[in-house]
Amino acid sequence: MVAGPSAGIAGTENRALTQAWGRYFYDRADIYGTIDGLLYSNSHNQRGAIALFERRQRAISTSRQIVTRLSDPRLEPELFEIASGNGLTVI
Questions:
Q1: 28 with 20: CB under 8 angstroms?
Q2: Stretches in the chain below the pLDDT threshold 50
Q3: What is the rounded distance in angstroms from the CA atom of residue 64 to the CA atom of residue 56?
Q4: Per-residue pLDDT, 2
Q5: Which element (helix H / strand E) includes 78?
Q6: Is there a contact between 70 and 55 (Cβ–Cβ < 8 Å)?
Q7: What is the dihedral of CA 31, 37, 38, 42, to 10 degrees?
């Protein structure tokens, strides 16, 4: 809020506008320090989302990563719960 955008910016389809805001925070280390990314409300269901800037790539690529395919049967209960909570039908 201090930077100026309203919460409605997360729901806009104007990608140029949202990218301009992201660049603003990226470029203004004099105001915000060097930040690695942004936490914002996504446009689908207004839940928290994270956008990381490329300068954080080294730390991410060197961290331990576990990849699980969405087709993994162990994920099915959680995926159905997420779909249901977001009003989605799984066929």
A1: no
A2: none
A3: 15
A4: 58
A5: helix 76-85
A6: no
A7: 160
Which uninterrupted H or E stretch holds 59? helix 57-61
User: DSSP letters of 1-54?
Assistant: -TTS--GGGGG---HHHHHHHHHHHHH-HHHH-S--EEEEE-TTT--EEEEE-G
Note whether 25 and 32 are within 8 A (CB). Answer: yes
Q: Which residues of 35-52 are buried (b: 16+ CB within 10 A; e: fewer)?
A: eeeeebeeeeeeeeeeee
- The phi and psi torsions of 47 (rounded to 5 degrees) equal -85, 165
Q: Which token pair is 36?
A: 């690695």
Task: At 56, list the tokens.
Answer: 């954080």
State what percent of residues in the chain have pLDDT above 90. Answer: 13
| 69, burial (CB in 10 Å: exposed 0-12, middle 13-18, buried 19+) | exposed
Q: Is 64 helix (H, G, I), strand (E, B) or coil?
A: coil
